[in-house]
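R.M. (postdoc): so does anyone remember the format we settled on? I'll just put the structure tokens first.
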């Protein structure tokens, strides 16, 4: 995948934090060479987190997030600080910006504690050295001037060093294959699929197979029989969209491993084992229990939308219970989950791994079972064990 086409969830997310007028927005603009954030001498100019996906050398594909001042006050200020706190759940690294003349105070100390508690690597940056050159900067910290550009190169290099340590090469499926293995991808094209494109997990899986030296065959569920019969030898694996799990399971012989894009994505984002454990809670649901169905992306809902239509229908049919089902999408995931008896999450392709793990941890800390679309749908069709056959330790 080229730098120009790297999706947001696969980019290194860097958040800029600090008090109002510490120079966060000016620093982001200086680093990027663009007027991404509105800059003003009036405290509180940045009222919402501002995110920009871009290519930033020597880091590569990144998302920079400029946040409101952590010392904002009043009713609106409290909401802005809350948004800033929420940003901590989806970043890979943080830059704490402080004014050279102000130094480290209680707001900076609170942020430093949050970084450490959430295990977020961070840089402490002293800004405005053009105005206060005589101030001593504690050893080991960076001194910059968003106005003149002094120290910006060193800041970029330090961020690149963090990104290099934090970014690990990962596979969706390539590590399960041998070179020249054939994999069939079953990709139904429904009303929710963007015109002219296939959905992101399918794109990423296809690319990973090719990068790993495999051979990918893409077909719809209604041409799967013809695709299979045209092969001289059986495929090493079949990967399907979860929505047609039942159909594909009936066609593919048990001797051929079968799994789904959603299950692979849950593994890729680091919560498949939790999802497999969480699916057991479906059998314990009672009438009027609350279930949250959560999606990481925000998109226009179609008549047969998976999260708001199909999955609730399958869940109600499978359990035979009168359940209270709530849905959420995008970054509107509630941190208080105490009213729910189960959470069914999407694969998380549009979320960073850190944000997915944060959501999983919120559920875990509150004792709420947490599973995902693909795992739940395989369970509904009675083929969960088969869909996990490519991961023997999870069967």
């Amino acid at each position: 995948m080229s730098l120009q086409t790297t999706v947001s969830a696969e980019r290194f997310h860097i958040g800029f934090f600090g008090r109002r007028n510490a120079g966060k927005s000016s620093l982001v603009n200086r680093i990027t060479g663009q007027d991404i954030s509105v800059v003003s001498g009036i405290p509180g100019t940045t009222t919402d987190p501002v995110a920009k996906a871009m290519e930033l050398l020597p880091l590569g594909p990144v998302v920079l997030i400029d946040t409101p001042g952590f010392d904002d006050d009043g009713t609106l200020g409290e909401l802005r600080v809350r948004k800033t706190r929420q940003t901590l759940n989806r970043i890979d690294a943080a830059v704490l910006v402080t004014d050279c003349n102000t130094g480290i105070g209680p707001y900076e100390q609170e942020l430093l504690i949050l970084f450490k508690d959430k295990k977020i690597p961070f840089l402490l940056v002293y800004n405005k050295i053009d105005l206060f050159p005589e101030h001593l900067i504690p050893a080991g910290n960076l001194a910059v001037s968003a106005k003149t550009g002094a120290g910006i190169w060193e800041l970029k290099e330090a961020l690149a060093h963090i990104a290099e340590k934090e970014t690990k090469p990962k596979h969706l499926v390539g590590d399960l294959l041998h070179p020249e293995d054939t994999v069939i991808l079953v990709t139904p094209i429904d009303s929710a699929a963007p015109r002219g494109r296939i959905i992101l997990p399918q794109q990423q899986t296809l690319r990973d197979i090719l990068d790993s030296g495999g051979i990918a065959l893409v077909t719809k569920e209604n041409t799967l029989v013809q695709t299979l019969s045209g092969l001289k030898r059986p495929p090493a694996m079949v990967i399907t969209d979860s929505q047609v799990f039942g159909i594909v399971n009936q066609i593919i012989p048990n001797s051929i491993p079968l799994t789904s894009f959603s299950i692979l994505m849950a593994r890729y984002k680091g919560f498949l084992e939790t999802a497999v454990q969480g699916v057991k809670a479906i059998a314990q649901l009672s009438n009027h229990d609350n279930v949250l169905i959560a999606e990481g992306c925000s998109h226009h809902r179609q008549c047969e939308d998976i999260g708001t239509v199909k999955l609730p229908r399958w869940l109600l049919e499978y359990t035979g219970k009168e359940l209270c089902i709530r849905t959420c999408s995008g970054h509107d995931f509630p941190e208080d989950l105490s009213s729910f008896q189960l959470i069914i999450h999407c694969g998380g392709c549009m979320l960073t791994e850190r944000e997915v793990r944060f959501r999983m941890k919120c559920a875990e800390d509150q004792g709420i079972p947490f599973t995902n679309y693909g795992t739940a749908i395989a369970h509904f069709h009675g083929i969960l064990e088969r869909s996990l056959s490519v991961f023997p330790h999870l069967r």
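R.M.: ...and that's the designed sequence above, right after the tokens. Also worth knowing: The longest strand covers residues 12-18. Residues 174-264 form a domain with the Rossmann fold fold (CATH 3.40.50.11420).
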